[in-house]
Design a protein that fits this description.
By secondary structure, the chain is an alpha/beta fold. It has helices spanning about 45, 50-55, 85-95, 110-120, 135-140, 150-155, 160-170, 180-190, 195-210, 215-220, 225-230, 245-255, 270-275, 275-290, 290-295, and strands at about 10-15, 15-25, 30-35, 60-65, 105-110, 125-130, 235-240, 260-265. Helix 3 (about 85-95) crosses helix 4 and helix 9 crosses helix 10 (about 215-220). It is globular, with a radius of gyration of 17 Å.
């Protein structure tokens, strides 16, 4: 028995980048699921419960391995040399490669920022967005860096060993969540593929430049654009999130009066894997709302 059931895996060439993705469902509106950062992160690892649930609810769900992550291309032309914007542009290329005219977006952590920035850059393509626990969005809501952005792998103390990955995965999950061994091995393998370290360095080098270059920070910043985004949004946050604290969520909620926040108990940083049935239903219910009923006005 494997934990990766109820969905399929495929490849597509997205603007020259060989992109791996997991998918479920052959009919209905398209939903793009965007995973967060972290060693070995990928679409199947982050969305293994939501993919089949969305298909059963009548959607076509796609969870790409984002640029240089999961099993996606790690050759030099696929390195995220423009930081987060490289990830956003790759999602755009992925959506275009699949010939999707309209999409819903669901993003977790850094993936929530990618979803937000994609919707800001391409609002005509996006119906709704669900955001799940994201320090990255909070950082991007600052006019100037509240604190210097650092390498995520450095922050979590990851050194490409299986032991450091286990520590990260346990911290990332809610207190009652058991991290499956199959997931550990999948992510450990993905994090040690040829080219991954170099891709991570390219991303971190851009972050270092962004900390001191106003023009680059301005491209990352969504302080003005996200509150004005007309695309309906919902934010889900785990009350026991040890990566993006609940205090951060409360601060962010005040900055985003156009987005409804919902707080989930017994949840860590990945609500969609800590409380999958509840979060799946919250997402499905929100996607099913008429747009005018999904808009929050405070």
């Amino acid at each position: 028995m494997t934990i990766f059931e109820g969905f399929h895996n495929s490849w597509v060439l997205a603007n020259g980048v060989r992109t791996h993705y997991s998918w479920a469902g052959t009919e209905g509106p398209a939903v793009i699921l965007l995973h967060g950062a972290g060693p070995g992160a990928g679409g199947a690892a982050g969305w293994r419960f939501m993919l089949p649930a969305l298909a059963e609810a009548g959607y076509r769900a796609y969870a790409p391995d984002q640029l240089s992550m999961g099993l996606t291309d790690t050759r030099p032309h696929a390195w995220p040399v423009n930081g987060h914007q490289s990830l956003v542009n790759h999602v755009h290329d992925f959506i275009e490669a699949l010939c999707l005219d309209q999409v819903y977006l669901v993003g977790n952590s850094q993936g929530a920022y990618v979803a937000a920035k994609y919707a800001i850059d391409h609002p005509e393509k996006v119906n709704k967005v669900v955001y799940i626990g994201s320090n990255t969005i909070y950082q991007a809501m600052q006019e100037i860096p509240e604190r210097k952005l650092r390498s995520f792998l450095e922050v979590i103390g990851y050194d490409y060993t299986e032991n450091s990955l286990r520590k990260f995965m346990n911290r990332n999950s809610g207190g009652d969540t058991v991290v499956p061994e199959e997931l550990i091995q999948l992510r450990h393998h993905a994090a040690n593929r040829p080219g991954v370290k170099e891709a991570n360095k390219a991303f971190d080098d851009y972050l270092a430049k962004m900390n001191t270059t106003t023009k680059l920070w301005d491209r990352f910043c969504i302080k003005d654009s996200l509150p004005k985004l007309k695309v309906p949004g919902k934010f889900i946050w785990g009350k026991q999130d040890a990566v993006a604290s609940i205090e951060t969520a409360y601060k962010l909620e005040k900055l985003l009066p156009n987005i409804k926040f919902e707080y989930i108990d017994n949840c860590g940083h990945q609500c969609q894997t800590d409380q999958p049935e509840l979060v799946n239903q919250l997402v499905i219910d929100f996607l099913a709302l008429k747009n005018e009923d999904a808009v929050t006005v405070k």
